[in-house]
Predict the 3D structure of the following.
Amino acid sequence: METAFAQMLPPVASDVAGNWDTLFLFLVGVSVVFFVIVVGSMLWFLIKYREKEPGQKVGNIVHNDKLEFLWITIPTILVMIIFAWGWIVYKRMVDAPESAYDIKVIGKQWLWQFQYDNGKTTIGELIVPEKIPVRLIMTSDDVIHSFFLPDFRIKNDVVPGMYTKVWFQANEQGEHTIFCAEYCGNAHSKMMGTVKVVSLSEWETFQKGKGAPKERPASLVEWGQQLYTDKGCFACHSVDGVKGIGPSFKGIWGKQEEMSDGSHILVDENYVRESIEYPGTTKDKLVKGFPPVMPTFKGLIAEEELNALIAFIKNLKE
Amino acid sequence: MSHDAPAHGSHDNYLTHKRGLWSWLYTLDHKRIGLLYLFTILSAFLVGGIAALMVRTELWKPGKVFLDPDGFNQAFTYHGSIMVFMVILPLIPSALGNLILPMQVGAKDVAFPKLNLLSYYVFLFGVILAVATLFTSGIDTGWTFYAPYSIRTSTATIMVVTGAFFMGFAAILTALNFITTVHKLRAPGLTFGRLPLFVWCIYATNIIQMLATPVIALTLMLLVFERLMGIGIFDAKLGGDPVLFQHFFWFYSHPAVYIMILPAMGIINEVIPVFSRKNVFSYWGMAGAVFGIAVVSFIVWGHHMFVSGQSETANFVFSLLTMFVAVPTGIKIFNWVATMYQGSIRLTTPMLYAMAFIFVFLVGGLTGVFLATVSINVHLTDTYFVVAHFHYTMVGGAIMAFMAGLHYWFPKFSGRMYAEFPAKISWFLIFLGFNVTFFPQFILGMQGMPRRYYSYPERFTNLNQISTVGSYLIALGFVLALFYLIYGLLWGKKAPDNPWGAETLEWKTSSPPPHENFIREPVVTHGPYEYQI
Ligand SMILES: [Cu+2]
Ligand SMILES: [Cu+2]
């Protein structure tokens, strides 16, 4: 039972996930009992009191004070217990320890951006140390999103114009999926990210700003491919020619791209760089047939990374 | 009555009283208006159902099946808004309520027949306005219209929202009409303590409609102003507050959940006693529970917003208050089951639907306690767990009960019987399909699949496919129902006046009833469920 059940819930990867699961299990137990009582007696009555001949004798019970008292008080007491237990677990989920390490989160259509105290910024990938409480201070750049980490059993809306918070303490190293749980438009279901829980020493290296915690692929193209996922380009750009929110990268290299004012620009190193750092807001910079929704990546993508992305896009030419 | 009524069994009934299309479009007869509603709502149900099948088909596997993301977002938005605003909200109160309620109180018609017709056309106008957007840029906000997305999206939000505004207005007019009817037009001897519980439930619903609907109407209008004139109310970029929209929205939409479910409970209250041949267990417990639910429904809206950024104190209060919904709901469920005890149970189609209602509503109610528990809610909200939960309560609830009521009153308003055998097959398909569709969604939600997802990680594929198969079963069941009901309507066996041996007043007149319902004004001498066998 316990294990069959554990399969239905996501892995227990944070400090409170276990508490959450216990309460959940309790609720399932209570529900099963009530379900069996109600549906069981319904079916039992159905069989026992099925009409055998028309006009057969029926009972005339319309009241039973004892019974009615019981089915009012027992549920009332039970829901009060559930409420209190639920509140205790909730307090654990929201009250971050003083010592928690703060990371800023910005949600925007359709990617997650993380800012650390050392000035670093990552996109789509949140790097956190294991066994240390981390608090996320979140806001949105456009519409409402919701930061959802199933493995940690936490979620909170990310609202424009205000800060919301969640905190957690990851149990061990590993990777966990971040979802956006509040509908936010076209690529809502692609607004995913990863939490990467690293060891304390890796965390310290990351903090000092030396060396990315992710080992870098040997070839520039492969690295570009990795960045394409990590930086969230995949939410809007495909690599197989299918038009998404933005143009597909397939085959654009070396092409004369038509802008919305009718002018043409050659897709080369400079064009790609400009597209990434200053995505089209004016008509002569905006690819024809697309809305001006690409966020700017200026300052979020290092020089070497730009090169890798360019190599990656170049490699996709037909 | 003034004129010499034709003898019982004469051919004049409300369906033949006047003829021609105009006599229908301009009718003041509550029964005909009820049928107009029924026809309009079931047409909307068809559109909403097709949208649902599109959603489920697209979710067959991750990535594209046949829609692109914008098409998918529109499909679930139309599915949700049509089913909520045009189907489940008006389905029982406006369609079956109009057909049955005046007869159940022994009245010739509603208190204000012209207002009744007006409210139908206001409703129809709203429906047309909203559905017409299918031919424009469509709408992709989800049925909740959350700001600021609804303010920024390029789709036809204004038209749909205005449509919903008109539908709400129609609901207020109908509610006013019914409340007056119940107070003023009851037959002699029909004291409040002898009212059928269906009337109690519709009455409670009407009160909620009158109090809550203006709030959503104003909210939606504020949204329109913000979109049209850029007044910053909900969009933070304009200095507004997006969470405020959610407060306004749920202040209406939580009570709306009970606008959908109380009438459903009303039908179950009629069907179970009749087919158990037993007086309902605890009449006043039932009526009291309905009002308990109605009152509590106004002060729990914040349970939709536990992770929205509202304060911890609010979360505490709303979680606590929501827990109390479980108590009157439990009372009703226990009372229904107790009514069956020592009865003489006939397993007709309405009774099957009533039992299906108890089954699915129980699951919906129990999972509601999960969601009311604030910490549990954090993980489950905005996932498929919520989708499953509200389909179990609202669809399971309202649609199962509607089907129970439709079959139960079918002989009365059509004058003919439907065929039991195909009806049972169809019941089985719908009940099975319903559980196959929505039970796996509980597990998907537990595993963390968010709602309104066009695509999903590979590991959710199996459960999604089971769910999609289930939705086809439901569709099959409804298609079958369409056929045998139309057959019954046209060629079914002639129905006796009181085929089920019921005691409420609508069965004391012919089937179908005459134009003014009763030949002679009925006099009530006992409660609604005292069966003389
Ligand atoms: Cu989203
Ligand atoms: Cu609610």
